[in-house]
Amino acid sequence: MDTVKNILAKQELSKEDLVVLLNAGPEDAALIFQKAAEIKATYIGNRVHLRGLIELSNMCAKNCLYCGIRRENKSVERYSLSDADVETAFQFAIQNKLGSVVIQSGELSSLAFIEKVESYLRKAKEMSDGKLGITLSCGEQTEETYLRWKAAGAHRYLLRIEASNRELYNRIHPNNLLHDYDRRLTALTSLKNCGYQTGTGVMIGLPFQTIEDLADDLLFMRDFDIDMCGMGPYVEHEQTPLSKYNSMLKPVQERLTLTLKMIALLRIIMKDINIASTTALQALADEGREQALSAGANIVMPNITPGIYRNKYALYCNKPGINEEAEDSKKNLELLAKRAGCEVVYDAWGDSKHFIFSKV
Ligand code: 5AD
Ligand code: SF4
């Protein structure tokens, strides 16, 4: 078997190589993180771009078995931000020069929802003279809806594949058309066809998930030629069906290290994409998000949802920042980026270089 050092010197990594790297012990893992940091410095620089995260609504038509806001969780108090709340969040992003926002929501496909999102996109553009960058993360929709939202101003879209292994996907979702693996793939392809910078990602440390699955997840992202990635650890939520497998989970520290390795390896195999340091990382460890920046991530997402709604968007337990307001979240992430030795870039979209280069 090749040593980690030899593998890291290769131009192209195979599934076997990735498995060896994902299994690497602490000393070898340090080499992986170092290599990812070098690649990030060369292709991206030590810059971090911000995305103000707006959690638009926790209403969701879906029932993903891992998610705290799944439709059948009756203990969730449902909300949708008011128009005024959304405008306040846009205003905050503009005034604080965040450059971009992410509008995230539970998945709904009603015309009312589609129109609402469209109107917010137009509002954001109007309020900022077209300057605010907008990423959407509102689930699987038809190509027509994706085009409609694109025409209204969205230019990036995040839709996680969650688990690229079809069997694993089926184990963590109900078995019906609303949660169909092929439908998810079709939606991801539609996003590319519509000209979005397309992002995907997976959860790391799921019950039943193997190291081989994670290696395949990395290859899936490479072969799909994504522009951006948001991936994070699976964090259990007691009010979900998947929590009955909690005893199968890897310990927290192991899940954290595995997530950091996934980020580093993705940076190594997809040098110029945008990779987010996700909130779930911090649910596992206070320093989780800055460690991700050191391991290759270049995007952070201060939550700018009004504080009173934050505990209601609880996808998993121990979600950080539920007692913060937009101002606190922004300051905390700025400090975090500084601790990771990164320079925060203001007033810029921070588009995926991978996407930009693929168009020239
Ligand atoms: N742990 C970690 N991530 C989760 N998500 C949903 N539930 C969980 C959980 N229990 C993630 C999914 C989804 C995104 C909005 O949140 O990957 O795509
Ligand atoms: Fe809904 Fe997304 Fe949660 Fe699934 S993961 S239940 S689609 S909010």
Structural commentary:
The chain is of the alpha/beta class and 360 residues long. The chain has one domain: Aldolase class I (TIM Barrel, Alpha-Beta Barrel). Helices cover 43% and strands 12% of the residues. It is built from 14 helices and 11 strands. Strands 2, 3, 4, 5, 6, 7, 8 and 9 form an 8-stranded parallel β-sheet that branches. It is globular, with a radius of gyration of 19 Å. 5'-deoxyadenosine binds next to loops.
Report the sheet with the most strands, covering strand number, pairing sense and barrel closure.
8 strands, parallel
Q: What would you give as the CATH superfamily?
A: Aldolase class I
Order of helices and strands: HHHEEHEHEHEHHEEHEHEHHEHEH
Can you tell me the number of structural domains?
Answer: 1
CATH hierarchy class name: Alpha Beta
Q: Given the C-alpha coordinates, what overall shape results?
A: globular
* Helicity, as a percent range: 40-55%
Strand content: 5-15%
